[in-house]
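Saturday, quiet lab. Running sequence design on the structure tokens for the scaffold JK sent over.
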């Protein structure tokens, strides 16, 4: 009996020293997290990568809310959700501050870096000398992009509640474009589908988009479309973010997509906090996956297979996040 007891103690000590105790392996066991997602299906890829990592840590992923970005921030600030992977920094600064800012939430890590936004036109228009949105102040230039015959340019723009619409509306006012440009703000996929159809029909187009997203795999900058500039940097709320990219004044800051989380959740879950801090996804991987979706691989099952493939390809990095998160839990 004494030998048996001694052996059990030794085995238990070995397991504890090896970090193999259940609590260390699954620090999130018993915790159901409440993610909040945006309404863009292409964001499911990054969401699911983070959810899979949380599940490795023992967390249960609750039913996610799917709302517009402004509402995401309000929900996190009020404690009605735990985190999101779709906070655009600095685009969503106003949403962040109005929802409580640093007193209620924390921006964690640098999940996806190098996200561009801006205006593009078809290459024929660019080659004809339309290289700046300020050129559309001229009614004759604006008429080139008139899709409905009302005499103004039809700008495929940004839906309300996303944040980018505030920048576009500011530009229209600041650059004197109200009389010559119409900002079309319907559901983005419908608006951009119409834009692509016009482009394919040989018509001139002007539109807003961002990366990573599948649009730039169809309307390819440098091939059939080009980024255009703005007359000078000007942003809402007196912001002075750097809006120059590759020598061009695009009018929008280069953004990072960051995890935004409720402070109470982070304080109570150091493993999740460390995961959010370390997790990174290459923007080119996101664009490639979004292009797969645009080509028809857009079912939930297909997206899950994309997630699985990404994790296997990046297994060392993924496992590193998990190990560090377990260590952070103590």
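Result came back. Writing it out in full:
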């Amino acid at each position: 009996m004494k030998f048996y007891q001694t052996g059990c103690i030794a085995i238990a000590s070995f397991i504890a020293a090896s970090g193999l105790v259940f609590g260390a392996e699954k620090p999130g066991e018993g915790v159901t997290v409440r993610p909040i997602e945006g309404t863009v299906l292409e964001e499911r890829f990054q969401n699911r990568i983070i959810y899979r990592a949380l599940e490795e840590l023992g967390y249960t992923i609750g039913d996610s809310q799917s709302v517009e970005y402004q509402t995401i921030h309000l929900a996190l600030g009020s404690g009605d959700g735990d985190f999101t992977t779709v906070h655009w920094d600095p685009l969503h600064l106003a949403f962040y501050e109005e929802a409580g800012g640093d007193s209620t939430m924390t921006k964690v890590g640098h999940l996806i870096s190098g996200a561009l936004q801006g205006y593009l036109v078809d290459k024929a228009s660019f080659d004809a000398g339309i290289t700046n949105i300020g050129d559309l102040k001229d009614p004759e230039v604006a008429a080139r992009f008139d899709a409905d015959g009302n005499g103004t340019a039809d700008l495929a723009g940004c839906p309300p509640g996303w944040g980018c619409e505030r920048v576009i509306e500011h530009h229209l006012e600041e650059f004197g474009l109200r009389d010559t440009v119409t900002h079309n703000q319907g559901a983005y996929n419908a608006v951009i589908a119409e834009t692509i159809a016009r482009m394919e029909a040989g018509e001139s187009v002007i539109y807003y988009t961002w990366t990573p997203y599948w649009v730039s795999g169809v309307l390819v900058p440098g091939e059939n479309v080009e980024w255009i500039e703005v007359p000078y940097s000007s942003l809402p709320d007196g912001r002075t973010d750097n809006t120059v990219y590759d020598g061009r004044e695009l009018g929008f800051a280069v953004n990072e997509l960051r995890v935004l989380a409720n402070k109470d959740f982070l304080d109570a879950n150091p493993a999740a906090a460390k995961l959010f801090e370390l997790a990174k996804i290459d923007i080119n991987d996101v664009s490639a996956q979004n292009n797969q979706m645009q080509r028809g691989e857009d079912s939930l099952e297909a997206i899950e297979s994309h997630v699985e493939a990404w994790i296997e390809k990046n297994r060392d990095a993924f496992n590193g996040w998990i190990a560090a998160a377990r260590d952070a839990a103590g």
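Notes for JK: The longest strand covers residues 105-115. Residues 1-22 have pLDDT under 50 and may be disordered. Ask whether to fix the surface positions before the next round.
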